[in-house]
Amino acid sequence: MTAFPEIDRIRFEGTDSTNPLAFRHYNAEEVVEGKTMAEHLRFSVVYWHTFRGQGADPFGPGTALRPWEDGTDSVENAQNRARVAFEFIEKLGAPYYAFHDRDVAPEGASLTETNKNLDAVVGVLKEEQQRTGIKLLWGTANLFSNPRYMHGAATSPNCEAFAFAAAQVKKALEVTHELGGEGYTFWGGREGYQNLWNTNMKRELDHLAMFLHMAVDYAKEIGFTGQFYIEPKPKEPTKHQYDSDAAACLNFLRQYDLMDHLKLNLETNHATLAGHTMQHELEVAGGAGALGSIDANTGDMLLGWDTDQFPTDIYLTTQCMHSVLKYGGLAPGGVNFDAKVRRESFEPIDLFHAHIGGMDAFARGLKIAAAIRADGRLDSIVNDRYSNWESELGTGIEGGKHDFSSLEKIMLEKGDAATNVSGRQEMIENLINTYL
Predict the structure, then answer these.
(1) pLDDT, tens digit, for every residue of 1-40?
(2) 245 among known catalytic residues
(3) Which candidate in 25, 100, 207, 355 is catalytic?
(4) Contacting residues for 366 by C-beta, under 8 A, at least 6 apart
(5) The pTM of the whole model exceeds 0.85
(6) Is 360 assigned a catalytic role?
(7) 224: Cα within 13 Å, side-chain hemisphere
(8) Distance (Å, rounded) from C-alpha 121 to C-alpha 29?
(9) Which residue in 103, 245, 306, 360 is the catalytic one?
(10) CA gap 278, 288 in Å, rounded
(11) 58, pLDDT greater than 90
């Protein structure tokens, strides 16, 4: 029995198409910079928003119509939901999905029962992966919803909460490995603080690092070779989360000798909550060799929380893909739609409209970014701006041949620095507009 009987496989129909259930820009087989769009973008559908989101907000209950739900939190309903999820992803034509353990299976009265429930649903996920060819981009564990994690999981002042989280991640790693997941993500939903007066920050950070090293060790033990990721977010639900932005995550990874084991999974709405652009976060991660994967969404500048809207801004997707191309791509990560339909978009068909729009927006961003790189004018402007560093002095400084004393001697002889050149910001903004 089909959950979407009125929907056929979503096809690429080109820019002349007026069909709202067709791609106008995402052509999976189109080659851009030597790889197909499918290889560049590696689209992934998230289980939590798309198949568990009910459209609730702080001011009201859910509005979503999901005819396949039977109103229970049973294993049988979870298994049926998994089959619906794969029907959706298959018709959409996305090659990947991602999940939290608690998205796919209900929590039981004990850890033993919970693991049994998860195994029962993982069996269906495995069957559906084999049937459709859809793969798991990455798995993760929900270490933030249950009240046991009210003070955090790996950073909890309760050592038994830490131990339970370790057991939960152990199981999540096992099922991710069983399903052939290409990565595993840590998002510290409550790994932070509300009040520093009652917080031993150093001890909590030490515990978090210990937890991640345990995960790395266990992955080696079971033969899981997928990429580990940390996902930065500055706040919500805590006032301050330890994984607050890309720079904070990188500092943590360096401090605790984890740089060789984890990269960053960056989310647009988290970047803006941190006071950054997504382009900024991508450049910080890329420059450190730590760009791993992206959660594709956007926020609303008129709202102050994590709205997780689908991305439709072509400037945003162009900026994202320009940085992604610059740093060699995302694989084994991907473009993961950590996004949800609006509360007012409550019908099942709205799930298709939302994903089609996001996939087309990223396809356009990819093509525009590739055009910018091929044209070369932007690179020339940037290179010209730094051309002074190609002088004997500049190359000497970069080559480590100078110190303060030698530089002082040079500038005493010259008297002043050379005249600056214009940054040409407005010209660059005009140039970018010509590609859109």
Answers:
(1) 799 999 999 999 999 999 999 999 999 999 999 999 999 9
(2) no
(3) 100
(4) 32, 37, 40, 41, 317, 321, 325
(5) yes
(6) no
(7) 28
(8) 32
(9) 103
(10) 16
(11) no
